[in-house]
Amino acid sequence: MGATFRDRLGSVLMLAVIAILWGQRSYTTPFGGIFPDGIMVLMAIFVVLTLILSFTPYGVMKEEEDEKKEPKTSKKRWLEMTVVIAILLLWVLLLRYVGFALSSVLGFSSVAWYISGQRKDWKTIVKALVVGLAITYLIILIFGYLLQVPLPEGEWFG
Amino acid sequence: MFEHILLGLHNLSTFQNLMLVLAGTVAGMIVGALPGLTATMAVALLVPFTYTMSPIAGLVTLGAIYMGCIYGGAFSAILINTPGTPSSIGTTFDGYPMARQGRGEEAIVGATVGSAIGGLFGVVCLIFLSPPLADIALRFGPAEYFWVGVFGITIISSLSAGAFLKGITGAAFGILISTIGIAPIGGDVRFTFGMPAMQGGVELIVMLIGLFCIPELLNLIIQGEGQKERIEYKRTKGVLWKTTRHVLSMPGNLIRSSIIGTIIGILPGAGGNIANLVSYNEAKRASKTPEKFGTGIIDGVVATETANNAVVGGGMIPLVTLGIPGAPPDAIIYGVLMLQGLRPGPELFAERADITYTFMLAVGLSAIVMVPVGIYGGRLLSRFVSTLSTRYLVPGIAILTIIGSYAIRNNFLDVILMLMFGVIGFGLRRLGFTAPPIVLGLILGPLMETGLVQAYLTGQAYASPWFALFVNPISWVLIAMSLFSFLWPYFGAIKGRLKGK
């Protein structure tokens, strides 16, 4: 991703954020909008300035030398990252229903197994499960029992 | 002030608090030594350990974690040529060559002594500079607080790695996020998208965990399991004292680096990552043998490690006096102070001096504790850290972020928001919007809004209510400082272009 493209994409996304929040404006007192409206206007000015500069030789972001030398991140790595985000999302959603213990054993083991790179090796699966189980229960011991931090029990079991 | 210091020492001397300082320092050192993780992330990850503690115990632990974390980064920098935290980038320049030459222990001892001296210098400045600054801050009215916020935003934007517009846009984005929920004055419900759960606004710690931890976690996946060569070092009789004497015989380097670290720490948003490189450069410039820098000279290690640990105390000065985090990890401490019901700012000295002084002294004690822990436990620590695999580190970080975001309000929405902000933060970082300006905007937003609206209300007697923002001389000073930091990057750019011509 080039510096100019990043300037332009960033500006468009920020303009979208401003537009969405501007559409949500509904104040009931004269003071509620003074500050956020002012910030939105200022932010829009900065973003438009960034966008304009991206069409000139004075673009906001500069291509770093190191960046040019760095090998590009492979598609495989991006795919791995996307899958891990999906696993994390599932983990978080499961947390509510099955509780911390089960969701964390499953979530931890799944992430550990997936990023190990040896997905077909049954030893990796067993190792990921055992480590997931051990870490989850160590955390329950520390947080749940020692520090008395409330951990979700899960709507299905709670 | 001295009675408060004595009270702080008394509070700190309990067995529980001393153990918490030790545990916090060790935990910080372990996470800090993990390559690729920032100090801010380390502090954010370990925050849930303090949720159920008393304010004193929680802050004592957190302060020790922060100090230990910055120091821990030196181990990976010296032994595997990968800085544990960005605060130790400069340490690799001479630390790793020293380790390769079989002088690993010398480098570790140099880093340890430098870190302890820098850490203590920062804390001494924190203890003695903060009360008078807090007294000045007590004279601030709403308009001055608004301008303090503006100054914080402009200065962090001008430090945003050469991309001022990106920095200030990121800060504005953070401010806008801070306006979600009920308005501080007037009680308007804003930007909740019709969701009642959003009326309370975005929980600061949740957003901090998301913005600082999830992008690092995703970066770990992208970088993959790199093969790192770790250099073993053995403890040799006599090296400890010889190196300590050698380090102490360079007071110029120690004092200069400590001052650089403390001043950079005070600047909002700038942290150890900048301080260690600036002090390395200054040590090189001041040296009689600058050509030796980069070949394995202990002066370089001492300069960087002294400066990055001095940042810890320096960064807390604006935090405890004005409620503005100096360095990024201070943003997490800000969040924890709020969580514990303590409002960062002059009130900390006026009303909760017992807690404030205990906290500051604990950070100083941690700098002392680092010495025996680092020297006698350093080898074990580096061996442990190098055996940790990314495949377990990534889910390990994930599990702590989940606990950290859930346990604040026992709210599942917070966990989802944390993950969402984390992914957004990762994307924004790729587009040039770094986390520190966004976080500073998030923290300063409510302060600025309250100041602005209150000043507007008190200015009804003037021809225009906005005049209230400009009537006090303190406001003029703050406006001048804001203008200077706003225009500074442009002066720099123009100067650079003229030089180029």
Textual characterization of the structure:
The complex is a heterodimer of chains A (158) and B (501). Chain A has 158 residues and is mainly alpha-helical. Chain A has 2 domains: 67 residues; 72 residues, no CATH class. In chain A, 72% of the residues lie in helices and 0% in strands. The radius of gyration of chain A is 23 Å and the shape is flat. In chain B, 73% of the residues lie in helices and 1% in strands. Chain B has 20 helices and 2 strands. Chain B has one domain. In chain B, α11 packs antiparallel against α12 and α13 packs antiparallel against α16. Chain B has a two-stranded antiparallel sheet with strand order 1-2. At the A-B interface, α1, α2, α4 and α5 of A face α8, α9, α17, α18 and α19 of B.
Q: Average the pLDDT over all residues of chain B and give the rounded result.
A: 86
Number of helices of chain A: 5
Secondary-structure element string of chain A: HHHHH
Biggest interface, which chains?
A-B, 73 and 60 residues
Q: Share of helix among residues of chain B? A: over 70%
Quaternary organisation: heterodimer
Radius of gyration of chain A: 23 Å
Tell the overall outline of chain A: flat
Q: Structural class of the helix and strand makeup of chain B?
A: mainly alpha
Give the class of chain A from helix and strand content and strand pairing.
Answer: mainly alpha
Comma- or semicolon-separated keywords:
heterodimer; A: 158 residues; mainly alpha; 2 domains; 5 helices; flat; B: 501 residues; two-stranded antiparallel ribbon; 2 strands
Lay out the secondary structure:
The complex is a heterodimer of chains A (158) and B (501).
Chain A: H1 3-23, H2 34-54, H3 65-69, H4 75-115, H5 122-146
Helix pairs in contact in A: 1-2, 4-5
Chain B: H1 2-12, H2 15-33, H3 39-46, H4 55-79, H5 89-100, H6 104-138, H7 142-158, H8 164-178, E1 181-182, E2 189-190, H9 204-223, H10 239-248, H11 251-266, H12 272-286, H13 298-322, H14 328-339, H15 347-350, H16 353-387, H17 390-406, H18 412-430, H19 435-458, H20 473-500
Antiparallel strand pairs in B: 1-2
Helix pairs in contact in B: 1-16, 2-3, 2-4, 2-16, 3-4, 3-9, 3-14, 4-5, 4-6, 4-13, 4-14, 4-16, 5-6, 5-13, 6-10, 6-11, 6-13, 6-16, 7-8, 7-19, 7-20, 8-19, 9-14, 9-17, 9-18, 9-19, 11-12, 11-13, 12-13, 13-16, 17-18
